[in-house]
């Protein structure tokens, strides 16, 4: 750990003061980006709860952001694909996001909080663009996306643990200060990223590409199953702090749950490529969805606080394997020249829409059935997703498809 921290400071100094290594600049950008995210977003539901907002309304407030992201992400992606300098959207997002985030502290009216949630989601919709820039730069500057993404996982792990202890001692209002400082730092770091040319000059309109992909039933079925699993991940992420609070576990340890999951993600992201080469992407998805379902069952029986923290390792395993395998599967199932559009559709439906439905459903279930009932429901949905992947595999068995051995 000491070696990682030392290397981080070396990366930071080089990125800020003129290192020629493009990879190091992306390393630091990912580290600070996920530090900003981890300092605020995992604790938002707990902050709103402390201000007297019910679990159902918290779910509604968080879910409305999914609608905004579904509409904003494709638009910003199309703009970025054709922009002369994609850094401009990253800088604009970094400056405006903390200003909008302060809106959560200004008023407790539900209508106001929903408006803040929508605008904040639009600002955050620029975040996936850094992945596109990193992927584009990786081919030009000889590094891999995984090498820089790992710094984000490490940052998230360290920050959630430290922030949980700090906010418990000093108050959740400090989340707004930390997020603002780190976001402004991101704006300066974005200036140090390389200026890259437009990603595409596609003549076909985005919605025409969506219509073309909608004719591919197997791709749509696969995304629908991923949507189910995404619902469970959204419920867990949004309501785990309230689960901790309702069961009267020590609130100073709530950030440690996210830390354990993120630390496990780091090696699992590295192992995922090797596992897909040996087992195939679909078998990796079987394992990922099973890990999620088992975790939710264990959470539903209210183990000790040590047990709750320990089972978060399954979350790290499940997420890293799910994300790696699902992205490759979507690429494999998409027609030639429609890979980018397919990934956008996957992100909007399985990601943003899943988050919207999960937040709403989680808030209603938490209020009606309590924290344990919510996790029993999550386990049922996770099991349904596992069954969906099995059905998809059986449907594909007669045809020779790329899922049996994804080429890395």
The gist of it:
The chain is mostly helical and 408 residues long. The protein folds into two domains: 12-194, MFS general substrate transporter like domains (Growth Hormone, Chain: A, Up-down Bundle); 208-408, Up-down Bundle (Growth Hormone, Chain: A). The chain is 80% helix and 0% strand.
Shape from CA axes? globular
Mean pLDDT, to the nearest integer, reads: 81
Uncertain spans, ≥5 residues at pLDDT below 50? 15-19, 400-408
CATH fold description of the largest domain: Growth Hormone, Chain: A
What's the β-strand tally?
0
User: Structural class of the secondary structure composition?
Assistant: mainly alpha
Largest sheet: none
User: Over the alpha carbons, how many angstroms does the gyration radius reach?
Assistant: 20 Å
The CATH architecture classification of the largest domain is Up-down Bundle
Query: How many separate domains?
Result: 2
Helix and strand run: HHHHHHHHHHHHHHH
Oligomerization status of the protein chains: single chain
Helical segment tally?
A: 15
**What is the distance, rounded to the nearest whole angstrom, between the alpha carbons of the first and last residues?**
30 Å
- For CATH, the homologous superfamily of the largest domain is named as MFS general substrate transporter like domains
* CATH class group of the largest domain: Mainly Alpha
User: Percent of residues in helical segments?
Assistant: over 70%
């Amino acid at each position: 750990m000491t070696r990682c921290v030392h290397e981080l400071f070396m990366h930071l100094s080089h990125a800020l003061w003129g290192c020629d290594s493009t990879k190091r600049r992306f390393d630091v950008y990912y580290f600070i980006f996920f530090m900003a995210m981890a300092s605020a977003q995992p604790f938002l539901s707990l902050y709103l709860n402390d201000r007297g907002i019910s679990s159902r309304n918290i779910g509604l407030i968080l879910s409305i952001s999914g609608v905004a992201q579904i509409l904003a992400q494709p638009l910003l992606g199309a703009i970025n694909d054709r922009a002369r300098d994609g850094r401009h959207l990253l800088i604009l997002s970094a400056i405006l996001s903390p200003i909008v985030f302060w809106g959560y502290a200004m008023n407790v009216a539900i209508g106001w909080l929903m408006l803040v949630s929508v605008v904040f989601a639009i600002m955050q919709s620029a975040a996936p663009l850094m992945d596109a820039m990193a992927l584009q730069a990786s081919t030009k500057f000889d590094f891999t996306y995984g090498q820089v993404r790992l710094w984000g996982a490490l940052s998230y792990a360290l920050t959630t643990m430290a922030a949980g202890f700090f906010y418990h001692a000093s108050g959740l209002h400090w989340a707004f200060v930390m997020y603002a400082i780190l976001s402004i730092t991101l704006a300066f770091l974005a200036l140090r990223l390389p200026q890259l040319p437009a990603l595409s000059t596609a003549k076909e309109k985005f919605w025409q590409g969506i219509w073309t992909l909608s004719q591919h039933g197997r791709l749509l079925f696969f995304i629908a199953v991923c949507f189910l699993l995404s619902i469970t991940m959204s419920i867990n992420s949004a309501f785990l702090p309230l689960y901790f609070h309702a069961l009267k576990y020590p609130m100073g340890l709530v950030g440690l749950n996210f830390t354990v999951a993120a630390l496990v993600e780091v090696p699992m992201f590295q192992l995922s490529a090797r596992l897909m080469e040996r087992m195939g992407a679909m078998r990796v998805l079987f394992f990922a969805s099973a890990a999620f379902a088992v975790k939710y069952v264990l959470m539903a029986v209210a183990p000790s606080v040590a047990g709750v923290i320990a089972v978060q390792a399954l979350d790290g395993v499940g997420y890293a394997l799910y994300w790696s395998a699902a992205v490759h599967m979507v690429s494999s199932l998409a027609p030639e020249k429609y890979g980018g559009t397919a990934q956008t559709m996957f992100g909007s439906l399985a990601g943003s829409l899943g988050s919207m439905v999960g937040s709403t459903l989680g808030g209603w279930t938490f209020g009606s059935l309590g924290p344990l009932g919510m996790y029993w429901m999550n386990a049922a949905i996770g099991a349904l997703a596992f069954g969906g992947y099995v059905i998809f595999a059986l449907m594909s068995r007669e045809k020779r498809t790329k899922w049996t051995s994804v080429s890395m």
